[in-house]
Specification:
four-stranded antiparallel sheet, extended, MoxR-vWA-beta-propeller ternary system domain-containing protein, alpha+beta, 41 strands, bpX3, 6 domains
Length: about 950
C-alpha cells in the first residue's frame, strides 16, 4: 500500500512535535529558545536533507509534557498511533484501519515529511537534546580575585537628532518668532481708504508683550497661554495668532476676537475687502521674490493642499514668516488652517517662482529647502522625496514613499541606502522580494534565514520556468554551482531560453573543472539533447569553442561530424560551412567543400510541365486523396464546403455546399479547422472512396453526400459528416474492404479498445480488443481533442499508434502491440494482400516496419536522424516520397543495411502540402502550399 500526505486547510491533529529546518544545532537551539521550555522535556529525531544523503536537513523535536504556544511553532507536527508524526494540517491517503496501521508502522518512530518523505527510526535514534551540546574542557584557574570590569553599555535602540528646546516648544504650540510681510521695508500705498493703522495690524504677542516674551522660549509659552485666555475671555486685544495654509497668518480685526463686544459676522462687503487685501498681499510677495528670494520664500503660500490641517483658523489678510526647512511634522499637522483662494494669474506666477527657487536650492546643495518647496508649497511629494534622497536624508524620503506615495519598494531602497536594514527587510518581506530579503539578511550575518529566502526566490523562478534566473541565484547567492548546472540543463532540455541556459552551463562547468568540460559536453550531447536540438547544440558549442581546452575541442569536432553528416544527406549542404569553424587549420577544406557541392549527387527529377495545374487560391484546402484515375481535394471558404475532382490532364470539377455549422461559427467570429480523414492503405484501385469530415467545433451537419461516377470522372465519392463520436471516445476511423465504416473507440469506463463495424443496414457490431500475447484487454489512453490524428490506417488489418506503441488490429479484435524506442508522431502505409509495409516516424528518426506471415516487426534501423511530421507517401512497398522542410521532396528506397537510401530529389517552387499517386509507382503528384499541382516522374534507375 502506498501512503501519501494530502494537505488540509484545517488543523487535523494535536501538536505533539515540531520540525526545525536547518543543518546545525545553532539554528535549532535559536528557535527552541523562543519556546522557554526546559531541554530535559524534549527529545529529537534527525531528518536528512533528502533520501540520498546523510547530511542533516532538520530536527524533529518531540514534546513530552510542555508544549509551546502555537504562534511560537513554525512547523507543527501531530502524532498518529503514538509513533507516526505528520504535519498537523495534513492527512494520510488512502484511509487505513488501526490494524493496517500497526502492520505498516514497524519502526519505533516514523516521520512523514512533505518533501523528504517517509523515514523510520529505531529507539536508539531518538536522542536527548543535550547530545547536541559538547561542554568545553575544564580550565584549572581561580577566578576568585577577578575584577568584574566595566558594566556593559545599554544596547543601542534608535538614532535621532536632538532638537533644541525652543524648536520643540515652537513645534508643539505652533508659534515662531515672526514678522508679517508688511513689516519688511518696502514703499507702498495704503490698500484702501479704510485701511487700519499699521499699529493695529500687529498681533497680540508682538504689540502688547515686551521683547522678553517674544524672543525667549518661556516667553513664547506664556504668550501662547495669554493668547488662549484672550480667546476665552473678551477683555481687550484685537487679534490672535492662527495657523494659515500659507504659514502663520495674522487675523484682521474683522476676523479676530474683540474685547468688550461680540464677534462680528463677515458680510459680503467684508469678504470682498478680505480678498482684496489678500490679493495685495500676494502682489507684495511676488515683488519680494524679485528683490530678495530667500526672504520671500519665508512668506510663501502653499499652492497645493496635501490634506494637512484639521478645522478652520480665523481668516487673515497677512502672510506670516515660517521656516524654509523641510519638516515632516508641519507638513502633515492637525492644526487649523486658514485657506486662501489664489487666482490663476497669481498661482501661475508663484508656481514659476517656486520652481526656480527649488531648482536653485538643489543646485546649491540645499536639499532640505528644495524638499520644503516641493512638498509644502507645490504639493509634489514625489520630487520632494527625490531631492531628500539626493541630500542623503533617507529616512524622511522613505517615510514619504511609504506612507504618502504608497511606493513601498522605493521606501525599502531608501531604508537600505540609509543603513536601516531591518526596516528595509520588513518591507521586502511584505512585498515578497525574496532575493533582496536574503541579500540584506546575509549582510546582517543571518546566514540561515538568508539562505531560506534565496531558496524561496529560486522556487518562484522555477515555477515561472525562468531557469536562468533560478540558476543565477543558486550560483551567485547560494554558492551552489552544481545545483545551478542541473537547473540550466533543465532549461536547455525544456527549451526555455535554451541557448542562454546552455551557454551559462558551459561557462560554469568550465570554471568549476576545465579538465572535465569534455566529459560534460558529451553528457549534454548523448543524454540531454533531443534530435531537434542537435543543430542548436552544435552552433552553441562552436561559439564557446575558443574557451575550451584541447580535449573539449576534440569532442566538439567529433560531435560536429556526427550532427552534420545526416543533415547534409537530407539536403542541408550549407551546414558544411560549419566545418570551417571546427577545423580552422585545414587549408584544403574550402576547396573540398566546393567540389562536393558541385557534384552530380542525384539525377534531376523530371517534371512533366504538360501536367501542371493550379487549384483556386481563395479556398483553404484541408485534405486530398486519390481514387481510381482522379485526384480529390476538400476545402472550405467562409460558410461553404468545397470538393474538386481533378483528372491527370488538368480537367477539374468543383462542388460546394452551404453549411449552417460554418455559418454559425463565422457569425460568432470563431476560427474553424476542417479535419478530413480518408481510408489510407496505399491501394488506389477501388472505385469508391469515403471521406470523413469533422471540424474542431463539431460536425458539419450535411449528412452523407454522394458524388456519383460521371464521365469523365470514374468512381463514386462519399462525403460522410456523421458524428460517430456519439458512440464513445473515438480513436480512429476508416472503411473496410467492403466500404463499411470501421471506428476504433475506447470504453469510457476502463479505456479498453473497441472495434465497431457499421453495416449498410445500420446494424452496429462491435468487438473488444485483446492482447494476442496474454489475452489481456487492450487499453488505449483517451486522446486529447484535436491534438492527435484520428486516422485509422489500412483496411484489414488496421493500424494506429499512441505514444511509443504501434497497434495492429484484426476484425475479431486480436491485437498485436509493437513498442518503439521513442514516441511515434507520423505513419505511412502500403498494404497488399500478402503484407503491409509501414514507415514510422519517431523522435529518434524514421524506420521501416513489416507485417507479413513471419510476424509484425521492425526490419531496419532509422534512416533519418530526425522525425518527419510533414506530408509523405508510400508509392510501393519499397519506395517512399517525403516532403522536405522548405521546398521539394526526397525519394527513399528500402535498404536492408541502413533502412533507406536517397535516390532522387524532386523540385517544387514552394513547400509541399499534399503528395498523391494514382496507379504507377514511377509517378507522383506534388501539391504545394499555393495550390500548384505538378506530376513528377521517378527515374527507373533509382530503384
Amino acid at each position: 500500500m502506498l501512503l501519501q500526505l494530502q494537505p488540509d486547510i484545517q488543523t487535523r491533529h494535536k501538536t505533539a512535535a515540531a520540525f526545525l529546518r536547518g543543518n546545525s544545532p545553532e539554528q535549532w537551539f535559536r528557535e527552541m529558545n523562543e519556546w522557554q521550555i526546559p531541554l530535559q522535556h524534549l527529545t529529537g529525531l534527525l531528518l536528512p536533507a533528502h533520501k540520498n544523503t546523510v547530511e542533516p536537513g532538520g530536527l524533529l523535536v518531540i514534546f513530552k509534557n510542555d508544549i509551546p504556544a502555537p504562534d511560537k511553532i513554525i512547523h507543527a507536527y501531530g502524532v498518529i498511533n503514538d509513533n507516526l508524526f505528520i504535519p498537523v494540517n495534513a492527512q494520510i491517503i488512502p484511509a487505513v484501519t488501526a490494524e493496517e496501521m500497526k502492520e505498516l508502522l514497524i519502526w519505533h518512530r516514523q516521520v512523514m515529511h512533505p518533501g523528504i518523505g517517509f523515514i523510520g527510526y529505531e529507539a536508539r535514534d531518538e536522542r536527548p537534546l543535550s547530545s547536541f551540546i559538547t561542554p568545553g574542557s575544564e580550565v584549572q584557574r581561580s577566578w576568585g580575585h577577578a575584577h568584574p570590569g566595566l558594566p556593559l553599555l545599554a544596547p543601542l535602540t534608535s538614532i535621532g537628532v536632538a532638537r533644541s528646546q525652543e524648536e520643540e516648544i515652537s513645534d508643539m504650540l505652533g508659534i515662531y518668532e515672526q514678522r508679517p510681510l508688511d513689516e519688511l521695508p518696502e514703499d507702498d500705498t495704503p490698500l484702501t481708504d479704510d485701511h487700519i493703522a499699521s499699529e493695529d495690524r500687529r498681533s497680540f504677542t508682538d504689540r502688547e508683550l515686551p521683547s522678553f516674551f517674544r524672543y525667549n522660549p518661556l516667553g513664547i509659552m506664556l504668550a501662547a497661554i495669554l493668547a488662549g485666555l484672550a480667546k476665552l475671555f473678551s477683555f481687550g486685544g484685537r487679534t490672535f495668532m492662527g495657523m494659515g495654509r500659507g504659514g502663520f497668518s495674522r487675523g484682521e480685526g474683522d476676523g479676530g476676537h474683540t474685547f468688550g463686544r461680540s464677534r462680528k459676522r463677515n458680510g459680503p462687503d467684508d469678504l470682498k475687502n478680505l480678498q482684496t487685501k489678500r490679493d495685495r498681499e500676494l502682489e507684495r510677495l511676488l515683488r519680494l521674490f524679485d528683490t530678495n528670494l530667500s526672504e520671500a520664500l519665508k512668506f510663501a503660500i502653499p499652492l497645493q493642499d496635501n490634506g494637512a490641517g484639521r478645522g478652520t483658523a480665523s481668516p487673515s489678510a497677512r502672510l506670516g514668516e515660517r521656516s524654509t526647512d523641510f519638516n515632516m511634522g508641519s507638513l502633515f499637522s492637525n492644526r487649523p488652517v486658514d485657506g486662501w483662494s489664489v487666482g490663476d494669474d497669481h498661482g501661475t506666477r508663484l508656481r514659476q517662482k517656486y520652481e526656480e527657487q527649488a531648482k536653485k536650492a538643489t543646485e546649491d546643495g540645499n536639499h532640505r529647502q528644495a524638499a520644503y518647496i516641493y512638498a509644502h508649497l507645490l504639493g509634489d511629494l514625489n520630487r520632494a522625496a527625490k531631492v531628500l534622497e539626493w541630500g542623503r536624508f533617507y529616512h524622511e524620503a522613505a517615510t514619504l514613499y511609504l506612507n504618502h506615495l504608497k511606493q513601498p519598494l522605493e521606501a525599502a531602497r531608501c531604508y537600505e541606502e540609509g543603513g536601516l536594514l531591518l526596516d528595509a527587510i520588513r518591507i521586502y518581506k511584505e512585498q515578497e522580494k525574496f532575493e533582496k530579503t536574503g541579500d540584506l539578511l546575509m549582510q546582517l550575518s543571518q546566514t540561515g534565514s538568508g539562505q531560506q529566502y534565496y531558496q524561496l526566490a529560486t522556487d518562484r523562478s522555477l515555477r515561472k520556468k525562468d531557469f536562468l534566473d533560478a540558476a543565477r541565484i543558486q550560483h551567485d547567492k547560494r554558492k551552489d554551482p552544481d545545483a545551478a548546472c542541473e537547473t540550466l540543463l533543465k532549461g536547455w532540455q525544456m527549451n526555455y531560453d535554451g541557448v542562454k541556459c546552455l551557454n551559462r552551463y558551459l561557462k560554469i562547468s568550465n570554471e568549476l573543472d576545465k579538465e572535465r568540460l569534455a566529459e560534460k559536453i558529451e553528457l549534454v550531447y548523448t543524454e540531454k539533447t533531443a534530435p531537434v536540438q542537435l543543430e542548436t547544440l552544435l552552433d552553441t558549442l562552436i561559439g564557446f569553442r575558443p574557451d575550451m581546452n584541447d580535449a573539449a575541442k576534440d569532442t566538439t569536432t567529433r560531435i560536429a561530424f556526427e550532427v552534420i553528416s545526416p543533415l547534409v544527406e537530407k539536403g542541408k549542404e550549407e551546414k558544411l560551412e560549419i566545418l570551417k569553424k571546427v577545423l580552422p587549420g585545414d587549408k584544403q577544406l574550402s576547396s573540398d567543400i566546393q567540389r562536393y557541392l558541385h557534384r552530380n549527387k542525384y539525377p534531376d527529377a523530371q517534371m512533366n510541365m504538360e501536367h501542371s495545374f493550379k487549384l483556386r487560391e481563395d479556398i483553404e484546402w484541408c485534405g486530398a486523396t486519390s481514387v481510381n484515375n482522379q485526384l480529390v481535394f476538400v476545402g472550405m471558404k467562409e460558410t461553404r464546403l468545397f470538393v474538386v475532382r481533378m483528372l491527370p490532364n488538368g480537367r477539374q470539377q468543383y462542388y460546394s455546399w452551404e453549411s449552417k455549422h460554418l455559418a454559425d461559427n463565422l457569425d460568432r467570429k470563431r476560427k474553424v479547422m476542417l479535419y478530413p480523414y480518408f481510408p489510407v492503405s496505399g491501394d488506389n484501385r477501388y472505385y469508391r472512396q469515403t471521406m470523413f469530415l469533422q471540424t474542431d467545433r463539431g460536425v458539419i451537419d450535411l449528412g452523407k453526400l454522394v458524388l456519383p461516377a460521371e464521365k469523365p470522372f470514374e468512381g463514386t465519392i462519399v462525403l460522410d459528416t456523421t458524428d460517430y463520436s456519439i458512440h464513445g471516445d473515438m480513436q480512429g476511423i476508416t472503411t473496410d474492404k467492403d466500404e463499411q465504416v470501421i471506428t476504433l473507440m475506447t470504453d469510457k469506463k476502463n479505456g479498453q479498445a473497441i472495434l465497431r463495424d457499421f453495416h449498410q443496414d445500420e446494424e452496429l457490431q462491435q468487438v473488444r480488443c485483446y492482447n494476442a500475447e496474454d489475452n489481456s484487454p487492450v487499453i488505449i489512453p483517451k486522446r486529447i481533442k484535436n491534438t492527435v490524428d484520428l486516422q485509422l490506417y489500412g483496411n484489414e488489418p488496421f493500424f494506429t499508434w499512441y505514444g511509443n506503441r504501434l497497434y495492429r488490429f484484426n476484425s475479431i479484435g486480436e491485437t498485436e502491440i509493437l513498442k518503439t524506442a521513442a514516441a511515434i508522431d507520423n505513419l505511412a502505409i502500403y498494404q497488399t494482400v500478402r503484407a503491409t509495409t509501414l514507415v514510422v516516424s519517431t523522435a529518434k528518426g524514421c524506420y521501416w516496419v513489416l507485417d507479413d506471415k513471419d510476424g509484425f516487426r521492425v526490419i531496419t534501423s532509422n534512416f533519418t536522424a530526425e522525425p518527419h511530421t510533414g506530408p509523405w507517401k508510400m508509392l510501393s512497398d519499397e519506395r517512399l516520397v517525403m516532403a522536405n522542410k522548405t521546398t521539394g521532396a526526397t525519394v527513399y528506397e528500402f535498404n536492408n543495411k541502413n533502412g533507406g537510401r536517397t535516390v532522387q530529389q524532386l523540385k517544387t517552387a514552394s513547400a509541399i502540402r499534399f503528395i498523391l499517386m494514382m496507379h504507377h509507382p514511377d509517378q507522383v503528384f506534388l501539391v504545394d502550399d499555393k495550390g500548384r499541382t505538378s506530376l513528377h516522374e521517378i527515374n527507373a534507375s533509382g530503384r
